[in-house]
Amino acid sequence: MFDNQNSYHHTMKWSLQTILQRFQGTLLNGSYETMCAQYVDHLCTLEEGNVGGLSFFYQPKYLKQLYQTKASAILVPKNFTLIQPIEPILISVAHPYNCFISLMEEVSHQRRGVRSGVESPSYIGQEVSVGVNLYRGAFSYIGNHVVIGDNVKIYPHVYVGNHVTIGDNSILYSGSKLGDHTVIGQRCVIHAGAIIGSQGFGFITHQDHSYQRIPSIGSVVLENDVEIGTNTTIDAATIGKTHIGTGTKIDNLVHIAHNVEIGKHTGIAAQVGIAGSTKVGSYCRLGGQVGIAGHIQLGDGLTALGKAGITRSFKEGYVTLSGTPAFENRKFLACYAWFKKLGQEMKKKKET
Fold first, then answer.
1. Is 156 helix (H, G, I), strand (E, B) or coil?
2. What pTM was computed for the model?
């Protein structure tokens, strides 16, 4: 996860006293005077920890790594009890993982640096409204009649079509593309290579078996705090809108077809494909390589395990699905147990 010798070394430095105060922590071992004089200069895992590193522990399965690590300091849960002496300084906090992520975000911001102003060459069209503190990278293209909020960052080689709206504090990373009439909410993150507002996959079949494309004249709407992964594609609606709800997080290499509606705070892992006009509820979890047929409805709180193929609606939601065609996971596991025994049963019948 981390390479302490290369990519995760940086110029940031934290005193352990600062860490203690920042996260309202408690010192579990060592003296307060000794701790106040110590600093950490990089983040690390327990396994890869070394001198100057700060790590975290919150799952019992990593207890062995905790007592073997060479990290200088470790964030641990409030209820943690030492069972043997340990060299690293232990700081107990309410949520070790969340605190560690906060420090990771700090490192990430430092690496990206402060981006501001307009780089050349870049293009901006007519009748464009721009908020304060816009960053526009080199070779970016912004079309006509675009509205851009405050503190928006548009990295190099980004394409923004006509009549697009981008909310405050949103980030468009290099190579991402927004088709015409796309609406991006506030604090959204569009990662490199993502394409939002592409043409949908719809065709009329003529009597001679040739195809005629059905144009997508609708839009894509992303509500606030949505994150779209690298090389993900979201098709524009045929008519109307393809809609992604507040707080939904979409991984890399996902395809969302035309007129799909996804609720709020849903998580979608890599290589998921959702066919046209399907509705996915809020607080759903879709594992890697899940495939969902078109024109069906999935209710709130649904979980689809990896590679599930969902071919019918589960409107009631709050169910875990497995297999293809997908059905309830507990029933799937029972059937699979019988399937594994099938060979033995057939062998017994042959012997009798």
1. coil
2. 0.86
